Amino acid sequence: MRWMAGFGGLCQTREKGLRGSFSRFVVWGMFNAIASKHDRRWRDLLVWIVLAAGLTPIFWLTDLDIRAAGVFFQRGHLDGPWFMERAGWVQMFYYAPPVLVGALLLAVVWGFVVGTLRPEARRWRGAAAFLLITLILGPGVLVNAVFKDHWGRPRPKHITEFDGTQTYRPPLLKGEAGTAKSFPAGHPSVAFAYAAVFLLLRPKRPRLAWVVFAFSTLIGVGMGAARMAAGGHFLSDVLWSALLTWWAAWFAYYFIVRVEREPSSLLGSEADRRAERWKNLAMAAGVLVLVAGVLLATPTNKRSALNWPVTVSPPEAVLLVAPGAQVRVRVAGAETLPALGLRQSIQGFGLPGNHLKVRTDPLEPVATWKYTGLARGYYTELENTLEVTVRSGLRPKLQLQVGPGGRVVLEGAAAELSVEADVPVVREAEAPAGSGAAD
């Protein structure tokens, strides 16, 4: 065995003294034992363990998560505290996952078809199955279904350090399931899933494999930075998005499909036609499941802004209907501002075609203005916010209908307004004060 050769080499150097020999033997033996072709899987796993065990404690021992998120936060900014949320590069990465998944799906279909029609290319079916399983197991099951939907870690925009109401939780510390979906980051996992292509190329084309790995990591980091800029994820969420997805690719490669050891035996022998048909159906079902997952994960980011006309007398009362919205009411002192301003945004994931439907109506007999903002469509995750700005000196009566899941907060002087709501109204003195983020 190679580790024994390493030990023999160390014994031959005993004239240099025994100092450090044992540690050298351990390191030499361990790395030689796992460096052979057949033990490459354990070398890959060791790298994963070192990354996970070496980087995760940093976020427990320091405030790196808060500081990294704070780079994108500026309280009082005209474009909102997460002022880069609408930047072009942020939006580009926000809508990128379906494109990346679609490219891998095309590769899966191509490999499956070629491997079926050409017996000499049968190994491509195994490669296609590996890509498909990595996408389903990594971004689909581990990142989103297992952790993201059930871990309960608040997003940066929801914690008290950034004017939210929840408490920061370090990575791997589980919260209450269903209350928050920060851990891990879902968007970057799609880019990190291209590590599967790296594993396929590495045995015969290592240079190209490393180019693919570097490119996918760069795109994943960019997507993670974009989600951080929107207050959607912490730096540690992005790290664990990569770790979980890479582990899924590693596990699928060596233990499910076993591409490197059995590249052409995944789908059974030619003689077993019945098993062949079932496996073909399983492959097709996997593609359909992934397509459905992509459709349900279509990003939605819609906004609406309305200002009361300066030339029209302000209404005596305003009825705001925004089911499920997180409403913040503030008073602005500038006389040049409109009497009333409304900014609503919906952000989340769901089926294509989801949109924000806005309607305004005058009501009688009292001079009432009705605003209705509805998130239309089917959503797997939705964040609905409505910002109401009233010009200083005006006292319109505000009526809010937000329903279950909605919340109403009055900031500063807005606490003096006449406000009625179908949920408890939180005045600024009752809301947790934000701290720890620079203005």
Task: Summarize the topology.
Layout: H1 2-11, H2 21-33, H3 40-61, H4 64-70, H5 88-94, H6 97-117, H7 123-148, H8 186-192, H9 195-201, H10 206-229, H11 235-256, H12 273-296, E1 298-307, E2 317-321, E3 326-332, E4 340-350, E5 355-363, E6 368-376, E7 379-391, E8 397-401, E9 407-410, E10 419-421, E11 425-427
Parallel strand pairs: 2-6, 2-8, 3-7, 3-9, 8-10, 9-11
Antiparallel strand pairs: 1-4, 4-7, 5-6
Helix pairs in contact: 1-2, 3-11, 5-10, 6-7, 6-12, 7-11, 7-12, 8-10, 8-11, 9-10, 9-11, 10-11
What key attributes describe this structure?
five-stranded mixed beta sheet; 11 strands; elongated; 12 helices; disordered N terminus; six-stranded mixed beta sheet; alpha/beta; 3 domains; 43% helix
